[in-house]
Amino acid sequence: MVVGVAFLTVPRHASATQAAIEETSIVTAVITDTTGRALSGVEVTVVGTDLRQLTDDNGQVYMAGVPSRKVTLHMRHVGYREADLDLFLTPGVRTSTTMVLRRALVTATTLTKVIVRGELVPTRYAGTSRFDDFYRRKAEGIGTFLTREYMDSRAADRSEDILRSQAGIRIRYRGTRPYIEFVRCEQVEVYINGFRSHDGFTSFLELNPREIEAMEIYRGVATVPPEFSPQPNDCAAVVVWTRWH
């Protein structure tokens, strides 16, 4: 099943960068096995591009910056048959889909999973290691870290409202379309669930605040962790983690 949902339109006076955004789409997918059980850790790639994501513990994957044309999603997971899914994407439209993976004829041996966890990770994340690095970086104290409790306390209606109280960040508007501006920094990279978002703040601002579990803000290139590998022109980064249960 594939469902298309229109998202924010680009104003008439769009820049070249905004025009490029019109040529990309957002794809969300839920991947299960034949019993309907959500599959986490499924590698989803857009064939012919560098786009790659892993499904979360709910079997969900969020991919931004997908070329607006016919694309093929390739899915693979240990113990399951690899599968492809063709999608026909329209610029400026979010496409949602579901996929079922079947077990391989020879089932891979399942090894006991051992997780070493720090005391700083809240007990509510006992069922996942997804946020371990978030709390490790938070403990190091480099950057600003917004937790789920902060998200809930803001009771924000829009994603950009979460950042309004943060020093050095301003919300600007082009017509009715918001964008985020850092003081003394124009090139800000945005990561969603640890992966670079190819259409930047558009992807982040598309998220409902209740979809956001945590956020990291790095105001200078010297503070950006190496795992988020800033590009030569980058001077800041925002890392968004989507909701866990």
Count of discrete domains: 2
CATH topology of the largest domain: Ferric Hydroxamate Uptake Protein, Chain A, domain 1
Largest sheet composition: 5 strands, mixed
CATH class category of the largest domain: Mainly Beta
What string, H for helix and E for strand, traces the elements in order?
Answer: EHEEEEEEEHEHEEEEHEE
Quickly give the structural class: mainly beta
pLDDT average, as an integer?
A: 80
Helix content: 10-25%
Shape: globular
Radius of gyration, taken over Cα atoms and rounded to an integer in Å = 19 Å
Give the low-pLDDT segments. 5-10
CATH architecture of the largest domain: Beta Complex
Note the topology.
Elements: E1 2-6, H1 16-22, E2 24-33, E3 43-46, E4 52-54, E5 60-67, E6 70-76, E7 83-88, E8 93-101, H2 132-140, E9 144-146, H3 148-154, E10 169-174, E11 177-182, E12 188-192, E13 195-196, H4 201-206, E14 212-218, E15 236-242
Parallel strand pairs: 2-8, 12-15
Antiparallel strand pairs: 1-8, 2-5, 3-4, 3-6, 6-7, 9-14, 10-11, 12-13, 14-15
Question: Explain this structure to me?
Answer:
The protein has 245 residues and is mainly beta. It folds into two domains: 2-101, Immunoglobulin-like, CATH 2.60.40.1120; 123-242, TonB-dependent receptor, plug domain (Ferric Hydroxamate Uptake Protein, Chain A, domain 1). 12% of the residues lie in helices and 36% in strands. The longest helix has 9 residues, at 132-140. The radius of gyration is 19 Å and the shape is globular.
